[in-house]
Amino acid sequence: ATRHAAPRRRPDVTAVAVPAHWSAGAVAALRAQAPHLHVVSDATAALTAVAAGPGLPSRGVVVLCDVGASGTSITLADAGDDLAVIGQTVRCDEFSGDLVDQALLRHVVDGLDADPAGTSAVASLIDLRAACRAAKERLSAATATALAGPHTPIRVTRAELQSLIAGPLDRLVVAVLDVLHRHRIAPAALAAVVTVGGGARIPLVTQRLSEALRCPVITAPQAQAAAAIGAELIAVRAVAFEAPTELAPAAATMLAPAATPLAWSAEECSMPTTSATKFALPRGDAARPEVHFGHETAAEEPRRRRSPMWLAGARAWPRSRWPVWC
After folding, report:
1. Is there a domain that residue 189 lies in?
2. Rg of the chain over CA atoms, in angstroms?
């Protein structure tokens, strides 16, 4: 699924979107055989892809119609509960891409004069069927197109295609209403209808669903690859959630150089140890002890003259209250 969604980029993870109508046993068997794969439901994957873009409501019930080649899968989801699936996916075989191709092929063959049972006609039918499929895709945007016939080009209009698929499409609408009735959900309670798959690009599909259900119809931009895109998103998010978080080492800068260890934390102090000198505090009118310095004697500074006021204040104090300098 990852390679289909982004073919030019090498995938970091591998995701597989399986049909939503598969049984739980079939899904478990696939996961057991390939534990390295991220196996998800194509309904959940398609809703994830649509939710990644704008337009999807945040509340209410959403109906997903996946119009594939062999049938249409109908899934209900709760937009207010992170698009949780409601009930089981229902498969409708009344409307599919292959049935549309066959209806258009019969319409084209009926206008030919050649016998379709002939040998040469059988080989031409294979090419004609591929041409009808391409014409169906072009009629999603154009009102008329031409396809290569056995002898001359054949012109087909959108109106002709719509008349061919009107009956099968009505049966698909009935199947959607039946799913809503089983879950006791009124059509008026729907928030939106989401269409994915190759058949979702047919304009009549959007028109009929909108008329019958009376709610907006959202078609994925890449409807045919919506499941693959959503599977890739789910796988990438799962890997990002499981990846451990580590602190990055701090980069050294010139403004903040690494601090050097302090001397006493790395080596023993090499200074000689000597016994401390004990001093006795003066008592009463005893003379102040002399102070001896062990370092080099600095040049004696000239003594500054004391002001008379300071001397007078000193004589006014008794000797016992003189401050002691150590």
Report:
1. yes
2. 45
Degrees (nearest 5) of the Cα angle 194, 216, 226? 20
**pLDDT tens column, 264-287:** 444 444 555 555 555 555 555 555
Domain count, the chain: 1
Q: What angle do CA 194, 199, 205 make, to 5 degrees?
A: 60
In this structure, what DSSP letter does residue 6 have? Answer: -
Judge whether 51 lies within some domain.
yes
Q: Nearest to residue 118, comparing CAs of 150, 91, 164?
A: 150
Q: Which helix (H) or strand (E) holds 85?
A: strand 84-92
CATH of residue 10's domain is 3.30.420.40
Which strand (E) or helix (H) includes residue 88?
A: strand 84-92
Domain-located, residue 312: no
**What DSSP letter does each residue of 54-85 carry, written as one string?**
S---SSSEEEEEEE-SS-EEEEEEEGGGTTEE
3-class SS of residue 7: coil
13 Cα distance to chain centroid: 14
Contacts of 27 (CB under 8 A, 6+ apart): 18, 39
Please tell me the distance from the alpha carbon of residue 137 to that of residue 202, in angstroms, as a whole number: 8
pTM: 0.69
Query: What pLDDT digit, counting tens, does each position of 35-44 carry?
Result: 988 899 999 9
Q: Which amino acid, 181?
A: H
Asked if residue 274 belongs to a domain, the reply is no
